[in-house]
Amino acid sequence: MIQPLKVFRTKNNELGFDWDDGTRSVFKLRDLRLACPCALCVDENTGEHLLDPKTVPEDILIESIQSIGRYAVGILWSDGHRTGIYPYDLLKRLTDKA
Prior knowledge:
InterPro entries: GBBH-like_N, GBBH-like_N_sf. With 98 residues, this protein is of the alpha+beta class. The protein has a single domain (4-97), classed as NE0471 N-terminal domain-like. Helix content is 16%, strand content 35%. The protein has 2 helices and 6 strands, in the order βββαβββα. The protein has a 3-stranded antiparallel β-sheet with strand order 1-2-3. A 3-stranded antiparallel β-sheet has the order 4-5-6. Strand 1 and strand 2 form a beta hairpin. The longest helix is centred in the C-terminal third of the chain and has 10 residues, at 88-97. The chain is globular and about 35 Å long. The mean pLDDT is 94.
């Protein structure tokens, strides 16, 4: 199971992860918000994205971030979204797709 060694924010208002496999992920905050996998943002049965990108501000910020066990981070967003749990394996896959 992939684990972050370090979670950091950049000067460009991005969120980054240094992984225990020696790789690094850096995400633009809006892109990360749009990738939220929660049931409010993605239909649990079909996988259809429910979140309208037009509703996510370009200048969205992270209000807080917390570790969820050893498998994910929970992010509280400035647009009021509170249910986003981002598993580490998802974050790694998003990096690998980029």
